[in-house]
Amino acid sequence: MATDTLGHAWALDWMERARAAVSAERIALIDLDRAIGDGDHGENMDRGFTAVTAKLATQAPGSPGEVLKTAATTLMSTVGGAAGPLYGTAFLRASKAAGDAVDGDGVVALLDAAVEGIQARGKAEPGEKTMVDAWVPAARAAREAAADGPVAALRAAAEAAATGAAETEPMVATKGRASYLGQRSAGHRDPGAQSTALLLQAAAEAAEAQ
Amino acid sequence: MATDTLGHAWALDWMERARAAVSAERIALIDLDRAIGDGDHGENMDRGFTAVTAKLATQAPGSPGEVLKTAATTLMSTVGGAAGPLYGTAFLRASKAAGDAVDGDGVVALLDAAVEGIQARGKAEPGEKTMVDAWVPAARAAREAAADGPVAALRAAAEAAATGAAETEPMVATKGRASYLGQRSAGHRDPGAQSTALLLQAAAEAAEAQ
Amino acid sequence: MKKLINDPGDVVTESVRGFGLAHPETVRVNEDPLFVCRAGGAVAGKVGLVSGGGSGHEPLHAGYVGQGMLDAAVPGAMFTSPTPEPVLEATKAADGGAGVLHIVKNYTGDVLNFETAAELAEAEDITVRSVVVADDVAVEDSLYTAGRRGVGGTVLVEKIAGAAAERGEDLESVATIAEQVIENVRSMGAALSSCTVPHAGQPTFDLGENEIEIGIGIHGEPGRERIPAAPADEITDRLLNPVLEDLSLSSGEKVLLFVNGMGGTPLSELYIVYGHAHDVLAARGVEVSRSLVGNYITSLEMQGASITVLRLDETLTELWDAPVGTVALRRGL
Amino acid sequence: MKKLINDPGDVVTESVRGFGLAHPETVRVNEDPLFVCRAGGAVAGKVGLVSGGGSGHEPLHAGYVGQGMLDAAVPGAMFTSPTPEPVLEATKAADGGAGVLHIVKNYTGDVLNFETAAELAEAEDITVRSVVVADDVAVEDSLYTAGRRGVGGTVLVEKIAGAAAERGEDLESVATIAEQVIENVRSMGAALSSCTVPHAGQPTFDLGENEIEIGIGIHGEPGRERIPAAPADEITDRLLNPVLEDLSLSSGEKVLLFVNGMGGTPLSELYIVYGHAHDVLAARGVEVSRSLVGNYITSLEMQGASITVLRLDETLTELWDAPVGTVALRRGL
Ligand SMILES: Nc1ncnc2c1ncn2[C@@H]1O[C@H](COP(=O)(O)OP(=O)(O)O)[C@@H](O)[C@H]1O
Ligand SMILES: Nc1ncnc2c1ncn2[C@@H]1O[C@H](COP(=O)(O)OP(=O)(O)O)[C@@H](O)[C@H]1O
Ligand SMILES: [Mg+2]
Ligand SMILES: [Mg+2]
Ligand SMILES: [Mg+2]
Ligand SMILES: [Mg+2]
User: Fold this and answer.
1) Which end of chain A has the smaller Cβ count within 10 Å, N or C?
2) Boundaries of each DhaK domain copy (chains C, D) (predicted)?
3) Which of C9, C8, C197, C15 is nearest to D272 (CA)?
4) Residue A157: how many CB atoms within 10 A of its CB?
5) CATH 1.25.40.340 is the classification of domain B8-208
6) Catalytic entry in D23, D61, D219, D276
7) By three-state DSSP, how is residue B4 classified?
8) Domain with CATH 3.30.1180.20 in chain D
9) pLDDT by residue (tens digit) across B18-72?
């Protein structure tokens, strides 16, 4: 049977895997952003998650909530651009939802809170070719898998995020920098949706490794 | 037998052929100057000789001296750069030497005067990789052929100038812009020597056509 | 990529440091968090002006810190808006007790980060007003975009609002002046070549040997359309016409005409554009009564230019003419 | 070649015309022959200052016409020194009865054409003195070259001699000041990419993806050596060291440090160079007491920078600080 709840070890491992993933995909994210934005998304995310794990290394957080709160404030103060406040808010809201331990429903609560935070700040709806297009299906998929526990929920979320990111390719952007391109934004994957897929894949892998 | 003396018709035809030659070789001269200078020699010469023939079209010069004087002042006031004052002075002195008609010795006098003018202004000696390396052998060759008349003298001068221009290739420049290159100027033909060869070729062709 | 840089990660800090060393009589650089303020600090009783955004648009914004213009500027990472913290600290450094105006260019990142900083500043009892510059007519201002980008008009907002603050107007009135400029300024740009972000290492976009991008943003965001290379007069028309349409200028009105270089275009070319734009305006009966030509808001080494037109009235003209003593714009001081 | 130009043959005239339209309060453009003079014309009783040379180095020289600097500038064809006639006419337009100083950059063409113009002016009873700027240490000053080129130092000569003339010194003393600057200023530049002369249509030289030309001239004349791409600090050392050696500065001396962009390099990179150059000078005990950073003498769209160092004494410092009111350099006016 899968793990029943995920604690701070999971959250720490998530952040470490997120850092590694973003760092490995730095150039790929830059290239996606060069195509429909300004070419900095990989650099921004890499800088942010490097800072997150460095910060966490100086602390001894006792709960997933604490880990995610540190991640939130660090991202907020190091990423900049559009992604900084959006991911910062997502993780801040998620940290409150996460609390001390995360079960299947906890994963749903965490992802729902993240989506709410992103939409509260960025005002984007699904279909506008932003990170929302990865987060929204992820939260929905998690809800459907929640009964199978947090690991299954995160795995489902990760897969839905990956699909969601891929599905941004044909979309025409109407939010963020890519919206300046109008029709010409179609045919390129949204960098923020792609980084979301990486982050949720890291969360699932960390859960599976618990 | 060859023509004994050359008059204003020759001089006018010379200028027209010079214009055509410089215009046809504009890019080639620019390319030579790009290699060891600043890439403007073809443009400068083209501008200058276009102005010379335009100016002559408004006048009715009665002697080679008058034609060359108009050429001199027009070159002086339209070419600019190093070539402008040098060719301007060359033609000004040549115009005085040319007078009303040019025989074999007249060709020698004309070329000698041009060489003196160029050296008075530019202080270059043969071997410094400048137009002097085309003019000096041209004047020498004309002297040797002078007894055969002006056409032969100009033909000899043209051929010597062409050889002289080719011989600038291995030289290391010590005057003009190419001197900044030092040793790296070797291996490229001097643009001013090349334009001199074109001008004297035009002079010979015009003489042959009389 | 060939650049006069050391480590791509150090470009912004090393550059801002050099800027501080070169101009100690005008600015002071705060290294952590990174912001630039006036050498003398905040002016007591004066409304403070703060702007900022991603780096790579130099001399914007740090070049406009000084008497008659900004009190502080916040350079973010390359093409990346700064985070709230340095904006907050710059806001504190700019506050002379009369409140602070944030001049924000309309990009999602800038808006979000400045918004947070303003909240944080309010929490520390500093009154903050924000204006958002959105002058780029290349972007349709509609439901289908993040709204018009802030480009060349930003420089004019900073100068004119700066002059209003300097002559002692209060926060409300400085903000009103800034809004008036924003309402009356429009811009559009074209790129002949891409810029290369140092950490990306390759050009942001690829333009063919004979292609021009019309409606380019200042971050190398692609523009409205890609056209074959054309004479300067035609490119100028393509930039100026949408600007004039949007401003709906009438004959007899006065404008400031600002031709801006994107960083890699020779000044001589900007003056060719200026000359034709001037002729087009004159033909419409519009009087160009003030001008600005040069590299004032750039996109690294991008080749290209933008045209900005500001409708002038007496107040704006007077404020434009007021003395200014910054590194990049100086007159009467 | 992509440029914001119309016909390549019209670049200079169209550009200078635009310049005149943009800055009527500072300059007046004479179209035939082409020169630029102060809007108000010659100043009675003041020594007139005239400079000029090939175009393509903007804002040099026309950008330096105005109070406290030049009285007239003569733009030649692209990279081609002007002919004597416009120099003569500019000299007449600059003559306020106290004689005229010609500031000539040391290139065969400039020297010859200005020489002739000076003779012609003397024939019209205008006293002319000429100084020749030759500050480029990349060129060995020897029998084997046309002598050192005039580069960045020219801007400083024009500013400082201009201030001397403005405060009423006579021709002899203005020329002496100019000579003092010339003796104490040295420069060297590097190119990361070539420029493209409009009428040539292709780059003046080819640099490999990873090559830098050290000791480049401002017309794209090749330099001292070609080296592999290197960090900014190393390039700065390679430019600065020969300059310092040639000037043989001692600890305790004061200098003006001028980092100039060749036209296509972002300002942010110039400040990186400035920062390191400043550190190197400080480490040698040399005090950088004045600075200038920006695109002041360019080579069309060339990427690269030059470093100029001027040894300062009290007189030169005072003259440097004096008010100046030109399009490209303005302070206190
Ligand atoms: N309004 C928004 N709502 C949600 N996500 C957004 C919004 N605007 C931008 N994004 C996301 O941010 C990503 C870009 O981030 P980044 O490149 O780091 O910032 P910037 O656009 O400021 O350069 C986009 O790919 C998109 O997913
Ligand atoms: N001192 C000199 N004496 C003779 N010829 C010279 C001298 N300096 C330059 N030249 C000639 O001038 C040519 C360059 O002319 P041009 O390119 O028109 O002028 P610039 O060098 O000013 O760009 C050189 O190729 C050389 O033949
Ligand atoms: Mg981006
Ligand atoms: Mg040349
Ligand atoms: Mg960005
Ligand atoms: Mg030349």
Assistant:
1) N
2) 7-329
3) C15
4) 32
5) yes
6) D219
7) coil
8) 185-320
9) 999 999 999 999 999 999 999 999 999 999 999 999 999 999 999 999 999 999 9
